[in-house]
Specification:
It is elongated, with a radius of gyration of 32 Å. Helix content is 0%, strand content 40%. The protein is mostly beta strands. It contains no helices and 18 strands.
Length: 210
């Protein structure tokens, strides 16, 4: 991201760490057996000296089964970085630039700004166990900086699962191939007379099984 109060600037690269999460389902079943013995003696009582028939008993044995199902861990791959393009700020007014989730090279430039180059959405691929549901966590709010103490805020992340360009939809179902792709957009807040420079930062995408 490059900010220039003049005609334009240059967009710098951003590297986005990824997150992955694994869930292990544990199923347990218990099988028990009872064994009872009944001795019936007609017309007589048990002799104390005889074998311990009347008072004899047997402790039942209990057996339990344990098991586990291990599924594939999730792998997240970045296919494209999130960029907001080249922007000329307003000298006195705040402005914002929003990158859409749904279409690449498409951004909404605020009326108080001049956008000389469109932004690009972030694109990711997640791989795991086929047909399993996953949850993609909202990155929240981050800052990008020019390395000299100047910064801008990136927030209102949109996209991930099926949805529109106005909210975060974090659910996704992996295809029968175990692969699913999703896109991420966001909004950049530009302050009045934002100092020129190449602004970069990172946001974290975490994916976990539901």
């Amino acid at each position: 991201m490059y900010i220039d109060p003049g005609p334009a600037a240059l967009s710098g690269p951003a590297i986005f760490p990824i997150g992955e999460s694994d869930m292990i389902n544990f199923n347990k079943s218990l099988t028990t057996g009872l064994f009872a013995i009944c001795f019936c003696v007609a017309g007589a009582s048990a002799d104390v000296g005889d074998a311990d028939i009347a008072g004899g008993s047997a402790d039942p044995d209990f057996e339990g089964n344990a098991g586990a199902i291990i599924i594939n861990g999730l792998t997240l791959t970045k296919r494209q970085d999130l960029h907001f393009g080249t922007i000329a700020p307003n000298m006195t007014e705040f402005g914002s630039v929003s990158v859409r989730r749904g279409s690449n090279n498409s951004s909404i430039c605020g009326t108080n700004l001049v956008c000389l180059e469109n932004g690009t959405r972030a694109r990711f691929t997640v791989t795991g166990t086929p047909l399993q549901h996953v949850n993609i966590l909202d990155p929240g709010s981050i800052q990008i900086t020019d390395g000299s103490g100047n910064f801008m805020t990136v927030d209102t992340f949109v996209g991930a699962g099926s949805g529109n360009d106005t909210e975060w939809r974090g659910w996704q179902r992996l295809r029968s191939s175990g692969i699913s792709r999703f896109n991420v957009g966001a909004t950049l807040e530009v302050k009045p007379n934002q100092p020129r420079g190449s602004y970069t930062g990172t946001f974290t995408i975490t994916v976990e099984y539901q």
